[in-house]
Amino acid sequence: MHGGRFSMVLAFTPHYDRHACRLAAESTSIVVSVEYRLAPEHPIPASYDDSWAVLRWVAPHSTRDGAEPWLNDHADFDRVFVGGDSAGGNMAHTLAYQVGTIRLPGVKLVGAFLTHPYFGGVEADDKMWMYMCPTNSGFDDPRMKLPVEDLVVIGCKRVLMFVAGNDHLREPGRAYYEWLNKSGWKGSVEIVENEGQEHCFHLHDPTNENVVALVKKIVDFINQYLLFLFVMKWGVFFFSRVYGMAGREIIILFIHFME
């Protein structure tokens, strides 16, 4: 999901469209880019409502009779990821939280990647939030600063985060990483810091070595799950074949392998 402080740019702004196409090509994934309503004409929570509506629109395609033939024919709904940068990173987090609390049928969310996510804790951004969201509950609004104990319900098992060394949102991003680690959530979170880089640097020069490395990290994050499924499939085959020769010990190993 694209950034822009909930108030600027579009999903089809050239640098966002290019980034989405690159992720789709390099990870061999289908990317659904969210065109959400922007503040102040459409105050928050319009953007959150729209992103959730898109995920709800995607979910019925799991029965192969949805409105979009491409999703019906090619998407694997057991391997769904959400991701975004800046404000889009915030909304990706919120979607993962909603999936964990509402349990959307038809979609298995396995991971979320948040690039330079927009969270509370920076005075200028907090003031902007108050303006864009007139119904907010103050600087500790849970959409900007979710209570640590609530993070335990995040609806995926893996989170990848990026922060940039020269980004004013670096410290809120680090804080989110710490909150998630302390929350009791049962998943794994990784944080990558790009020293000397600015906010959303990955959108500008696609040939820059730091941009190439960031994109590769996201692609590897997505494909790591595909490798896990491959190992599971062939591991089950292998251990099933040798069970008759090795006896009960293999059964125990097989059970742990499945877990």
From TrEMBL:
<keyword id="KW-0812">Transmembrane</keyword>
<dbReference type="InterPro" id="IPR050466">
    <property type="entry name" value="Carboxylest/Gibb_receptor"/>
</dbReference>
<feature type="transmembrane region" description="Helical">
    <location>
        <begin position="225"/>
        <end position="244"/>
    </location>
</feature>
<dbReference type="InterPro" id="IPR029058">
    <property type="entry name" value="AB_hydrolase_fold"/>
</dbReference>
<keyword id="KW-1133">Transmembrane helix</keyword>
<feature type="domain" description="Alpha/beta hydrolase fold-3">
    <location>
        <begin position="1"/>
        <end position="202"/>
    </location>
</feature>
<comment type="similarity">
    <text>Belongs to the 'GDXG' lipolytic enzyme family.</text>
</comment>
<dbReference type="GO" id="GO:0016787">
    <property type="term" value="F:hydrolase activity"/>
</dbReference>
<dbReference type="Pfam" id="PF07859">
    <property type="entry name" value="Abhydrolase_3"/>
</dbReference>
<keyword id="KW-0472">Membrane</keyword>
<dbReference type="InterPro" id="IPR013094">
    <property type="entry name" value="AB_hydrolase_3"/>
</dbReference>
<protein>
    <recommendedName>
        <fullName>Alpha/beta hydrolase fold-3 domain-containing protein</fullName>
    </recommendedName>
</protein>
